[in-house]
Amino acid sequence: MTINSQSGFLILSRRFLISDDVLADFAESAQQDLGRLLEAAARTVNETALARVVAGGFPDVRPSHIPVFAGLEPGGTRITVLAGKAGVSRQAMGAMVREVEALGYVVSQPDSNDARATLVALSDRGEKFCRAMITATNDLNDELTGRLGHISAQKLRRQLRVIAGGDGQ
To answer: Is 46:103 a contact under the CB 8 Å cutoff?
Structure first.
């Protein structure tokens, strides 16, 4: 590290060149990394499905709301369980639930088995959103199957199940 006497700027060129090389290698390896490719594909599919649902009558739903819907179970789900499924703190999930509840998609109430806990369940509007999301996802899956071909799509599903820790069935 040296200081250029004319400009007074700190010269870190050797360090930057090394960092630039590493970053270039990292970017190149990322193009073939299965995890990153899976993440990019999932993001594209999820964003496309949500955009269709938003355009179809649910303009106030944002991607940050999806973990609330995705974690709900029949009969209601505790905020702590939703938080665990989403990998966020109870406080963060509580804020998400309050936001989604204010939009009318879920209802919350004290758990009758533990007054300290809060149960969250779908409202009628939330049920309509979930049904619209199911339709959008099914339509998108059909489109992807058309692009890949039925056999390739089935093979991809089996391979993804194996990657996800299943037996591929």
So the answer is: no
